[in-house]
Amino acid sequence: MLNEQTSLNDWLAYIEQAHTKEIDMGLSRTAEMVERLQVDFRQQKVLTVGGTNGKGTTCALIEKICLAAGFSVGVYSSPHLLSYCERIRINGKNIDEDALCSIFHQINQARSISEKTLPLTYFEYATLAALKAFSLQKVDVVILEVGLGGRLDATNVIDSDVAVITSIGLDHQDWLGDTKEKIALEKAGIFRSGKTAIVGEPLAQQSLLEYAAQIGTPLKLVGKDFFYSPERAEVTVDNQSFSVESASIPKQNVATALAAINLLASLLKHEHSFLLPSEELQSIIDSISVMGRHHVLRHRDECKGECPVILDVAHNEDSAMQLSSLLRTYSFRTCHIVVGMLKDKNIEVSLSAFGEMDMHWYCATLPTSRGEKAERLCQAVQDNDITGQLDVERLMSFPDVETAYLKALDNAQVDDLILVMGSFLTVAAVLARHAKA
Question: How many domains does the chain have?
Answer without folding.
Answer: 2
